[in-house]
Design a protein that fits this description.
This protein has 321 residues and is an alpha/beta fold. It folds into two domains: 2-132 and 184-235, Spore Coat Polysaccharide Biosynthesis Protein SpsA, Chain A (Alpha-Beta Complex), CATH 3.90.550.10; 253-319. The protein has helices at 18-30, 45-57, 72-85, 104-114, 133-140, 193-198, 210-220, 260-274, 281-301, 309-319, and strands spanning 7-15, 35-43, 61-65, 90-93, 98-100, 123-129, 177-180, 188-191, 224-235. Strands 1, 2, 3, 4, 5, 6, 7, 8 and 9 form a nine-stranded mixed beta sheet that branches. Helix 8 packs parallel to helix 10. The longest helix is centred in the C-terminal third of the chain and has 21 residues, at 281-301.
Length: 321
């Protein structure tokens, strides 16, 4: 039944990540995808040569070589634009380290075909990434906005959360699919007609937050994103901005990276996106002040990382221009 659904994988890679990418490609091909579009965002010489070798021996693999790293927003813009313009029917976005587990694609196809009420122009499915357990909790607590934190948070911080009672909503572990309000690029699956509704990623985001901005357009257009737990992706590398399950005193996510761009764009774009959920400016500004003071203290006590404060503040200033 699901063999009639033609699927194009769109993935973006960069640097020296061919080892990850090869696992993703091999797994995708084993699940009988019809086409793979690889956008090279400044891959190193070894990686780009290896990708070209794959293209040479497999006509279902296409390469878009951007020569230099233009950011994830433009990378996925180019890949999705190519898929759309060359007639892709269904598109499955995978990061270059999102390895599909067995039957991940067939589970998405089965879900789509089993739910005949899904509208092609405003519906997306989402594979479950094992390191994004918060998404699973969101559907099992029936809270589509759970991954976004509370209203008026500043970069995920809200002082009011410290004084409120902890969530007591029980999780219904029998739930194996459900609605989420936003999604990462990796795992997003949709019909080409969705692009007619929400367009392509905003390249001005450059890096970080562009996936949330893009997927949230579905929700804002009264569409639906359904997380399907039976479609599983394995993340071969963990993202720096994911919160650790281990709480450490005087630590935050900026300790985990030395990339000036990652810090700057994570802050700038995070602030830009969260304006969708601010309804009390006083509380929001209070959260911002406390968060920045805490960040100053944390980086001061981890002094070798103190230089990062400059890029945090640059991100804040850029977000309000």
């Amino acid at each position: 039944m699901n063999s009639k659904m033609k699927v194009t994988v769109v993935t973006v890679t960069y640097g020296n990540r061919f080892t990850f990418l090869k696992e993703v490609i091999d797994s995708s091909l084993s699940q009988l995808v019809d086409e793979i579009i690889i956008v090279s965002n400044g891959s190193d010489e070894y990686s780009i040569n290896q990708i070209r070798n794959l293209v040479a021996v497999n006509t279902s693999i296409k390469l878009i070589d951007l020569k230099e790293n233009t950011g994830s927003a433009n990378g996925f813009y180019q890949g999705l634009n190519e898929a759309y313009n060359t007639g892709a029917e269904f598109i499955w976005i995978l990061d270059d380290d999102n390895k599909p587990k067995a039957n991940a694609l067939s589970e998405l196809k089965l879900f789509w075909q089993s739910n005949t009420n899904l509208k092609k122009n405003n519906t997306a499915l989402l594979s479950y990434r094992l390191d994004r357990e918060l998404y699973k909790k969101a559907i099992q607590s029936k809270d589509p906005f759970k991954m976004l934190g509370s209203q008026n948070s500043f970069l995920g911080f809200n002082i009011l959360d410290k004084f409120s009672q902890k969530e007591t909503t029980p999780l219904d572990t029998s739930i194996n699919y459900g609605e989420v309000s936003v999604a990462p690029y990796g795992g997003l699956f949709f019909h080409r007609k969705l692009i007619d509704t929400i367009g392509l990623p905003d390249i001005n985001y450059y890096l970080y937050g562009d996936d949330y901005d893009y997927s949230y357009r579905i929700s804002k257009n009264k569409g639906k994103i359904y997380l399907v737990l039976s479609s599983v992706l394995e993340d071969l590398e963990k993202s720096f901005h994911l919160k650790s399950s281990q709480k450490r005193l005087l630590s935050n996510r900026f300790i985990k990276t030395d990339s000036k761009n990652k810090i700057f764009y994570a802050v700038r774009n995070g602030i830009k996106f969260e304006q969708n959920f601010v309804d009390n400016k006083v509380v929001y500004i209070l959260n911002a002040i406390i968060y920045l003071v805490l960040t100053f203290v944390i980086l001061l006590f981890n002094y070798k990382h103190f230089w990062k404060l400059k890029y945090v503040l640059k991100g804040v200033m850029a977000s309000i221009k």
